[in-house]
Amino acid sequence: MAGEVGLQSDVLLEGTARPRTLHLKNLRRQWQIITLQVVATVALIGMYLEVVSTYVVGSIDHTILFDTIELLISDQLPLGDWLTGEGRSGLARFFVPMVLGLSLGGAMAFLAFQTPKVQQRIKLGFIVGLIVLLIGRLTLSWLAGMLFSFDLRLPTDSELQTLQWPLLMIMSLLIMFIYLLPVIMGTRGIWGLSRRSIAWAIGFTLLFLGIHAILTFPLIKSQLGSYGGTLAVLESQTSDPTIGLFGLKLVTQEQFNLILIAVLIMVFQEASYGVIRNLEYAFRLPESCKRDPEYVRQMDNVLNTHLRHTFLFLGLTGVATMVALGFHKVLLTIVSDTTGSQWAGQVSESIELTLTYGLVISALLFLSLMAVLRFFIPWQRVIGLIQSRSNPVEPEPVSKDFSQL
Question: What digits encode the pLDDT tens for the residues 18-63?
């Protein structure tokens, strides 16, 4: 089919617009692609801030580590407080560092689109600048001292002191970059079209959540002493739900934070990977197909559908998770309203429902009910009907041959 599509002429009549094509230079400026990249960036920022506000701020954030280092060395670190966020409270400690991480990730994405020769020159300049920053002052003062005194000697203590500032600067930047690694790699992956960087951002976030969950386990936390006391802990016994739908309380604030983190990770992954998949598909098309209006229209439909599904299905995923975690509340409310008996109140006060495995049982009940409803409600047909209503198929134009009339 692709071989039957003829090349369109590049000659444009005066006053006519240039036809759209699926070349990467044009496709990357298309509003759907840019929207997906912006959505992925917003989801990345929201995911990072939600993880930081839930587990890091006031517990193990970088400002606490910087204060500890300053007490050990009895001196101030080279990075200013306005850059590190020291002296601020809450999420304000991460606003300026996050802008730094976004800028660095954007610069890395811009570098990825340069020619190999330009990339090599920039990397070489960075390495030379790092060497000069580290031992430049030491080398100049040491060589100058030997030159004027005509004495071949080792560096003195005062000359070695010049290494303190660059070493502390590099250490401070490394600490900042470790905390900002998801933002840096995520931004590079979104705008630099790198699957590996996106996987790094998601993997590092999940690795941090897993290690934090292990360290906050009561048996392990007790072995950490004072260090374990600073970790933010999610209680094993849940409190009364405060967030819900239509006046029905389903989840607590802690549970809602975890659901929000999971949904934002999925939005970031789907939006960023969606851009890469569609651009790769367009890149692999034959030249004739890239210029064909039918393929351009199909690409528009795919991108528009991806945008709608990103918000619709992932939003429904978050709502379904809330209902699954608070499903026992739904059942007890229905029983209490219909029967008026005290059984629902007695069961709702049961300790099993307030523990972690009680939430697992509630979620399994919800999944079991949805599995049973599958035999009565054809979910695929319902979804297909919704999609057909939202994407009406335009009728093909009928060509009339008046010569046969």
Answer: 667 888 888 888 888 899 999 999 999 999 999 999 888 888 888 8
Q: In whole angstroms, what is the distance from residue 212 CA to residue 56 CA?
A: 10
Backbone angles phi, psi at 249, to 5 degrees: -75, 125
H-type alpha helices, 21-163: 24-27, 31-51, 62-73, 81-84, 95-112, 116-149, 157-160
**Calpha distance 28→5 (Å, rounded):** 24
Buried residues in 386-397 as b, exposed as e (16+ CB within 10 A): eeeeeeeeeeee
Mean pLDDT of the chain: 79
The pTM of this model reads 0.81
Kindly report the number of other CB atoms within 10 A of residue 176's CB atom.
Answer: 21
Structure-token pair, residue 200: 């790094």
Alpha carbons 190 and 127: distance in angstroms, whole number? 26
pLDDT tens for 313-330 read 888 888 888 888 777 777
The 3 state secondary structure assigned to 260-316 is HHHHHHHHHHHHHHHHHHHHHHHHHCCHHHHCCHHHHHHHHHHHHHHHHHHHHHHHH
